[in-house]
Design brief:
The chain has 5 helices and no strands. By secondary structure, the chain is mainly alpha-helical. It has 2 domains: about 70 residues; about 80 residues, no CATH class. About 15% of the residues have low confidence.
Length: about 190
């Protein structure tokens, strides 16, 4: 054999060793990629399960809220008191009973609210004619409320109610619902301010 053949054979052998090394590295990378892919698939399945559970909870909350909204709410009616003419009576040892204050249910006005966001919101709700308009007004106000107050469950309640109103579309917003919503808004304001 000539020296050129030896050099060629040596070079060829070195190239084969390098290719074997590269092939081993590629196999290792492929196995690592498969392990990563399996991990990603496992996470995806887990996230899908979590997302499904969250959707189920959201549906249960919506069902519960619709049931609560559909239950009749007793609205107090105005009570008028008439005073009987004063007649002298014998003094008896009885417990003093204070009369119940007169209760009325007029449409709450924006003056009931104290915070500017809620004053504007009540005014907008009183002017809105459709469910969708009311829901959109709540969503717009929610952005301001979230930036003005610390986190509260009230945010979730506002979002849930506004979404249910938007889903009702362009149907007329009845005065009874308007009254209940304004009362809720005043309650939300009180809970956030405390």
């Amino acid at each position: 054999m000539s020296s050129e053949d030896d050099i060629f054979l040596k070079t060829f052998t070195q190239m084969i060793e390098i290719l074997k090394s590269i092939n081993t590295s590629i196999d290792s990378i492929r196995k690592s990629t498969e392990i990563i892919q399996l991990s990603i698939d496992g996470l995806g399945t887990g996230l899908t399960n979590v997302n499904t559970q969250l959707d189920n909870l959201n549906n249960k909350f919506d069902d519960l809220s619709s049931k609560l909204e559909s239950t009749p709410v007793h609205t107090p009616t105005k009570v008028t008191e008439t005073k009987a003419p004063a007649t002298p009576a014998k003094k008896k040892a009885t417990k003093a009973v204070s009369p119940e204050p007169a209760v009325s249910s007029p449409m709450p006005q924006s003056s009931s609210a104290q915070h500017p966001i809620f004053i504007d919101l009540v005014k907008t709700i009183n002017e809105a004619a459709k469910f969708k308009e009311v829901g959109e007004a709540l969503i717009e106000s929610l952005e301001q409320i979230e930036s003005s107050f610390s986190f509260s469950r009230v945010f979730y309640e506002i979002r849930r109610i506004s979404n249910s109103l938007i889903r009702k579309g362009d149907n007329d917003f009845p005065p009874k619902d308007r009254l209940e919503l304004v009362e809720k808004i005043l309650d939300w304001e009180q809970r956030l301010v405390e």
